[in-house]
Amino acid sequence: MALAEAIDEGRAPCTACRFCLPCAHGVNIPRVFETCNEARIYGDEEAARGSYAWLDEAQRADACVECGDCPDKCPQGIEIPDWLARARELLHRERSNWREDFGKSLTPR
Ligand code: SF4
Ligand code: SF4
Q1: Which of 31, 39, 71, 103 has the most CB atoms within 10 Å of its CB?
Q2: Distance from the CA of 108 to the center of ligand 1, in angstroms?
Q3: Can you tell me whether residue 36 is helix, strand or coil?
Q4: pLDDT by residue (tens digit) across 12-68?
Q5: Residue bearing the CA closest to ligand 1, atom 3
Q6: Which ranges constitute the DSSP H helices of 1-109?
Q7: Which atom in ligand 2 lies closest to the alpha carbon of residue 16?
Q8: Which of 24, 22, 52 minimizes the C-alpha distance to 37?
Q9: CATH class label, 3-101
Q10: What is this structure's pTM?
């Protein structure tokens, strides 16, 4: 399934207001959603994966432990843990080591 196609209900309605931050576990929630939304808008899987790979690993969607602290802070009513789970499914696929691969490509042989 294509990355953009997997966002079956469209873009996360995140306005990047950052009211949900800080996440006690370090997730950069609006940045993760921005990446998903860019994938949806532009339909460019490689760009989304590449952009996501540059996000610090500690801030990625898989840092979410589903503690439940953030959804009530979101004025958009986004079920943040659910959307982060979707983001994990979309963005942690085969190109999750994109940054490492890119680094290797720059290493002289
Ligand atoms: S549910 Fe996930 S994203 Fe929300 S505060 Fe807890 S760990 Fe952070
Ligand atoms: S509170 Fe909701 S709308 Fe605001 S940045 Fe967080 S997820 Fe996005």
Answers
A1: 39
A2: 41
A3: helix
A4: 889 999 999 999 999 999 999 999 888 888 888 788 889 999 999 999 999 999 999
A5: 64
A6: 3-6, 29-42, 45-53, 80-91, 98-106
A7: 5
A8: 52
A9: mainly alpha
A10: 0.80
Nearest-CA residue for ligand 2 atom 4 is 17
Query: What would the two tokens of residue 91 be?
Result: 């963005």
Question: Looking at ligand 1, which atom is closest to the CA of residue 66?
Answer: 1
* Residue 32 contacts residue 60 (beta carbons within 8 Å): yes
The token pair at 38 is: 């860019």
Q: Considering only CA atoms, which of 2, 16, 9 is closest in space to residue 76?
A: 16
- Residue ranges per structural domain of the chain: 3-101
Structure token pair of residue 67: 């503690």
Residue nearest to atom 6 of ligand 2 (CA): 20
Return the residue matching tokens 């959603």. Answer: 33
Peptide bond into 22 cis (omega under 30): yes
